[in-house]
Amino acid sequence: MATDVKVPILGESITEATLGEWLKNPGDPVKADEPIASLETDKVSVEVPSPVAGVMGQQIVKVGDTVEVGALIALIEGEGAAAAPAAPAAVPAPAPTPAPTPAPAPTPAPTGEVEAAAALSPSVRRAVLETGVDPSTVQGTGRDGRLTKDDVLTAASNKPAAPAEAAPAPVAAAPVSSGGRKEERVRMTRLRQTVAKRLKEAQNTAAMLTTFNDVDMTEVIAARTKYKDLFEKKHGVRLGFMGFFVKAAVQALRDIPSVNASIEGDEIVYHDYADISVAVSAPQGLVVPVIRDAQDLSVAGIEKTIGDFGKRAKDGTLKMEEMKGGTFTISNGGVFGSLMSTPIINPPQSAVLGLHRIEDRPVVRDGQVVVRPMMYLALSYDHRLIDGREAVTFLVALKNAIEDPTRILIDL
Fold it and tell me: Which residue, of 40, 57, 121, 396, has the fewest CB within 10 Å?
């Protein structure tokens, strides 16, 4: 007897999602609570578990289809069906459900290679097409060994020699099949559609302005170099720069409360807490989980939280409630090599801090030109709520705390 698999409740105010990928093919054995599909919502990917143990049956919807909460998306056949399709790989065994029968027949033959190639998310599929990497030769690092976009890009960058030798064959074949230019149309993921909509709304609603400063990273780098081994040994997490910046931002937000506020209608809402949204790279795009009550956390607590967010963003296991709220955002484009940017506010927040790459530059200290590791800071803010004086004061307070980390310890 087949068991229905329906779209679970996805979260407050979320009524539909897009089927991102099937994690199981018809005929595959499944365990109870084992993920069989991945749904893309406005904020995060959600895995759909199998309600029972058995065999993957008919897949009712296709990848890319929009489904509502409670909609039927697949069937799970009873465990007895696992032996039935294996022995008679023809039509008689699954007589009650003819649809799943054709799929099990081709599936058992190719085994692992089909699993690697058949269930690729849109972003992974596009990376495969752009790089020419064979997905069946790449070891996935995502949840349950699934392939991620980063896996494909890493494989492409780590094998320069192989593509060089194989290059002549594809290059020769391309002109023969078609001499024209190629285009590919890929449907935007639900997450990307939501990001685009919200960012455009921010530009249309807020009176956005960006102010800049730079910061000398000498002292923070020295402190990190001196204590990173002891820090990791004691706390089990690496000491990065984000812990310093979050602590410095919390102090600056306390001094300039309007940067931590938001506009609701004709009222200004001031927060006596700092919920810091941190932009984290994930295979499906940028996600922004929230460090709750950052004002109460130590540097170690902040680093542990960020490390956990990064790992679960890569695995696709961040929860929806972890993406909600936030009173201020920090986005570190420096990890990708960005020198300077004008970040866009994450509504209903009123400001976002952009961090950038550290590079040696000549600066004047005590009348002498010296080389120091410098970083540009950018604060984009809603001018309806935050004046230029407050924005500049915030950045200067942050700069002072980073250039003299003792200020963080003694609360200056």
Answer: 396
Indicate the SS3 state at residue 132: coil
E-state strands within 80-192: none
Distance CA 39, CA 41 (A): 6
How far are the Cα atoms of 72, 91, 142, 228 from residue 4, in angstroms, in the given order? 7, 22, 27, 52
What does DSSP say about strands 276-278 and 328-332: parallel, antiparallel, or unpaired?
parallel
Instruction: Indicate the SS3 state at residue 252.
Output: helix
Superfamily of domain 120-187: E3-binding domain (4.10.320.10)
For 1-117, CATH number out of 3.40.50.720, 3.40.50.261, 2.40.50.100, 2.60.120.430 equals 2.40.50.100
DSSP string, 164-228: HHHTHHHHHHHHHH--S------PPPHHHHHHHHHHHHHHHHS-EEEEEEEEE-HHHHHHHHHHH
The structure's pTM equals: 0.61
Is 356 an active-site residue? no
- Annotated domain spans of the chain: 1-117, 120-187, 198-409
* Residues 17-71 pLDDT 10s: 888 888 888 888 988 888 888 887 766 677 888 888 889 888 888 888 888 888 8
CATH annotation of 198-409: 3.30.559.10
Query: Which one of the listed residues 4, 229, 383, 404 is annotated catalytic?
Result: 383
- How far from chain centre, in Å, is Cα 384? 30
Task: Examine the residue annotation and report whether 383 is marked as an active-site residue of this protein.
Answer: yes
The full length of the chain comes to: 412
Cβ atoms 91, 110 nearer than 8 A: no
